[in-house]
Design goal:
By secondary structure, this protein is mainly alpha-helical. Helix content is 49%, strand content 3%. A hairpin with a 5-residue loop joins strand 1 and strand 2. 21% of the residues are buried.
Length: 312
């Protein structure tokens, strides 16, 4: 599984840097031009616009601002503050571009149009342009990871910054898959760093401060470590026969694990021999916890499934 640092050439990195600088300059320009704008206000309205689009309140040629027949033009479209900085015209809403809609089985939720205050922010903040910049950044990042399949299912969707009732089952599944891939990538990076290979983000700054903590590359043999799921000095508990007690103890042990664990690592946290029956019981409990949303999974570079407790 690749990460963004090895996924592309200098042109891709330069493109991501240009997009970031464009976003920073655009937001600073908008805030400087209008004293009443705030960063929070901009993104609250952006999320409202996404909700309106995915709730089916706007079409390919209509605006979240309303207007007769959706013919009202976007203020400032194609120009920046003072008409001096060019900005691309906003693209059609994602639902219009891809013909996708929120889940047909979901209970319809009424979304009120933008209020007058929100309309003012939409106009002054050029929210349609802000939205397109963010969508461009998201697509570029997904491409850098090699995860364009998830980008197609997530870019431009509502609920990126706050809960949304307009997430389809496919979007929720894609978000779970994204989390699993990130966990797996994190496990790969941990294994690399234990072998002495660190992908420094700011080498000139980080290496002098942290380089002495990195293992020597020569110590490349990685032995699977036991996971500290039992407090130091405490006696490991026995895995009970009662199914409900098994669930409680396995869940508690998983919550104490400092990193995603393999089933056999978690089974080792319980007293007794490492029998096939004990491992099978722990595996079954972990699968049930994952199905109930009480545990999450990730696949490491070795292809093995690891489990971890949701945080927060």
């Amino acid at each position: 599984m690749r990460g963004p640092e090895e996924a592309g050439d200098a042109a891709r990195r330069a493109h991501l840097a240009e997009l970031g600088e464009r976003l920073d300059a655009f937001r600073k320009e908008r805030l400087a031009e209008h004293d009443f704008l705030t960063m929070t206000g901009l993104y609250n309205v952006l999320e409202r616009v996404r909700a309106l689009e995915w709730a089916g309140r706007t079409g390919a040629h209509s605006s979240p601002l309303g207007g007769e027949g959706g013919s009202r033009s976007e203020p400032g479209e194609g120009q920046g503050a003072g008409g001096t900085t060019p900005h691309p015209a906003p693209a059609a809403p994602p639902s219009a571009r891809r013909g996708e809609e929120p889940s047909a089985t979901a209970e319809p939720v009424a979304v009120p149009p933008l209020s007058e205050a929100e309309r003012a922010i939409y106009d002054a903040g050029l929210i349609a342009v802000l939205k397109e910049i963010h969508d461009d950044i998201d697509r570029a990042v997904f491409a850098a990871y090699g995860w364009e399949d998830l980008g197609d299912r997530l870019v431009g969707r509502p609920g990126a910054t706050m809960p949304s009732p307009f997430k389809s089952e496919d979007q929720e599944a894609a978000e779970e898959e994204l989390l699993s891939r990130l966990v797996a990538l994190n496990l790969e990076r941990q294994a690399e760093e234990k072998r002495g290979y660190v992908r420094w983000l700011r080498p000139d700054y980080q290496i002098p401060k942290l380089g002495h903590k990195v293992a020597e590359p020569a110590a490349a043999t990685q032995i699977e470590a036991e996971i500290a799921v039992v407090a130091a000095g405490a006696k490991p508990p026995a895995l009970p026969a009662d199914a409900f007690e098994q669930i409680r103890l396995v869940r508690d042990a998983l919550a104490r694990a400092p990193e995603p664990v393999l089933p056999n690592q978690l089974a080792a946290a319980f007293a007794g021999k490492a029998t096939k029956k004990k491992l099978a019981n722990v595996e079954e409990v972990l699968r049930n916890l994952a199905e109930l949303g009480l545990a999450r999974t990730g696949t490491g570079e070795d292809g093995a499934t690891r489990y971890f407790a949701p945080r927060g």
